[in-house]
């Protein structure tokens, strides 16, 4: 009996695709026995460049932060933003007293008062079930923190479980507890839509704060332009989307490098940017005490142990570089990088345009694309930078001239 596709080995899956030998050999060269156990229908690894944000001051400590991203100029900009923030003493982090994930049991067609009364009178049983469902998290000091009933619409409501998952990403912990809790609500069986965690991490709101001297930013005029640009993005969704995308260039690169779920972090962030019904930028820049003052608050759900993080050596290596001691500490580091990224982008726009540094990094990628050797890349980039217009054909032509 023929094996199903998911039962094939990685090489058998590649053979099924009828690839040319060169492509197949490259894919085979990037295979990993470890990663083959992580995703379904595994064929090969897809590598993303990883660079370093060198020395950002966070809560008085110098931190080195690896960033995994394919977009040119992002890591350079993050380093630039970090230097600016360091000039004002670095970034300070504010965390809630206790961070937690939120899980939901979803109900429809039931009276809110009836459901709310049930939850209120069964609090002790709800907490007992949670402890029996996941005793290991209680041994680490975590577990169910609160349970509340929330009305969504006239006939839709959610019972929200706030669960401290400590340093784990926590999805499996939350879902295991929720599935155990469903049995208690048997009298509402016909009204239960499902039980699942939410990625809207409102119990994991973190704030970072940083200051930049006028001298470091290029003068008071530049600082005031940055404030005006930021204010514009509070009123214009077109500008807000672009500003937040740049913010998540930094945040997502660190989340990815640490083996966390960058899609969940970004989805939660965009929801938070729209919380008042209008999509706005997430950072806040003002002039305070004759300095440029920046703040960023974001719901951010990440972990430092368990799941894919523990399974992927790349993620463990990155966490070793950062020297982070907890998931809460990692949250602050990630947001600090986001604030630095946003600052660098706003300064570039306010101080003559973002293209100057950005295009130089793009030309490096173009040089590699047209076949430049490592030692040829800086020479070719220098030549391309002096031209008014550049494309792949022109880059190839200059490369051929260099080799004559």
UniProtKB/TrEMBL annotation:
Similarity-based family: Belongs to the HMG-CoA reductase family.
InterPro entries according to UniProt: HMG_CoA_Rdtase, HMG_CoA_Rdtase_bac-typ, HMG_CoA_Rdtase_cat_sf, HMG_CoA_Rdtase_NAD(P)-bd_sf, HMG_CoA_Rdtase_sub-bd_dom_sf
Documented EC number(s): 1.1.1.88
Reaction catalyzed: (R)-mevalonate + 2 NAD(+) + CoA = (3S)-3-hydroxy-3-methylglutaryl-CoA + 2 NADH + 2 H(+)
Lineage of producing organism: Bacteria, Bacillati, Bacillota, Bacilli, Lactobacillales
GO terms for biological process, alphabetical: coenzyme A metabolic process
MF (Gene Ontology): hydroxymethylglutaryl-CoA reductase (NADH) activity; hydroxymethylglutaryl-CoA reductase (NADPH) activity
NCBIfam families in UniProt: HMG_CoA_R_NAD (TIGR00532)
Name of this chain's protein: 3-hydroxy-3-methylglutaryl coenzyme A reductase
Pathway: Metabolic intermediate metabolism; (R)-mevalonate degradation; (S)-3-hydroxy-3-methylglutaryl-CoA from (R)-mevalonate: step 1/1
One Pfam family hit: HMG-CoA_red
Keyword list, A-Z: NAD, Oxidoreductase
Keyword Ribosomal protein: no
Top-level lineage group: Bacteria
Oxidoreductase is among the record's keywords: yes
């Amino acid at each position: 009996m023929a094996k199903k596709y998911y039962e094939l080995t990685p090489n058998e899956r590649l053979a099924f695709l009828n690839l040319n030998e060169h492509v197949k050999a490259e894919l085979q060269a990037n295979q990993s026995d470890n990663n083959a156990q992580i995703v379904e229908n595994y064929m090969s690894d897809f590598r993303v460049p990883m660079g370093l944000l060198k020395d950002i001051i966070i809560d008085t400590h110098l931190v080195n932060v690896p960033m995994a991203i394919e977009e040119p100029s992002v890591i350079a900009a993050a380093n630039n933003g970090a230097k600016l923030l360091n000039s004002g003493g670095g970034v300070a982090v504010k965390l809630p007293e206790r961070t937690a994930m939120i899980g939901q049991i979803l109900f429809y067609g039931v009276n809110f008062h009836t459901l709310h009364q049930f939850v209120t009178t069964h609090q002790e049983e709800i907490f007992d079930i949670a402890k029996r469902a996941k005793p290991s998290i209680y041994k680490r000091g975590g577990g169910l923190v609160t349970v509340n009933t929330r009305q969504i619409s006239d006939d839709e409501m959610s019972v929200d479980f706030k669960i401290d998952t400590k340093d784990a990403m926590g999805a499996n912990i939350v879902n295991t507890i929720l599935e155990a809790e469903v049995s208690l609500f048997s009298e509402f069986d016909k009204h239960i839509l499902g039980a699942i965690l939410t990625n809207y991490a409102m119990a994991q709101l973190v704030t970072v704060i940083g200051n930049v001297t006028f001298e470091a930013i290029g003068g008071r005029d530049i600082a005031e332009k940055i404030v005006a640009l930021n204010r514009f993005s509070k009123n214009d969704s077109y500008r807000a989307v672009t500003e937040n995308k740049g913010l998540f260039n930094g945040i997502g690169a660190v989340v990815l490098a640490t083996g966390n779920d960058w899609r969940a972090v970004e989805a939660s962030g965009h929801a938070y940017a729209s919380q008042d019904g209008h999509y706005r930028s997430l950072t806040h820049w003002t002039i305070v005490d004759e300095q440029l003052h920046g703040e960023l608050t974001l719901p951010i759900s990440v972990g430092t142990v368990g799941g894919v993080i523990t399974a992927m050596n790349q993620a463990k290596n990155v966490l070793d570089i950062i020297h982070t001691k907890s998931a809460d500490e990692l949250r602050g580091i990630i947001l600090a990088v986001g604030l630095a990224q946003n600052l660098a982008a706003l300064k570039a726009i306010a101080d003559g345009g973002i293209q100057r540094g950005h295009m130089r990094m793009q030309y490096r990628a173009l040089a590699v694309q047209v076949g430049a050797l490592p030692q040829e890349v800086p020479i070719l980039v220098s030549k391309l930078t002096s031209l008014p217009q550049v494309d792949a054909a022109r880059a190839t032509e200059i490369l051929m001239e260099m080799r004559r």
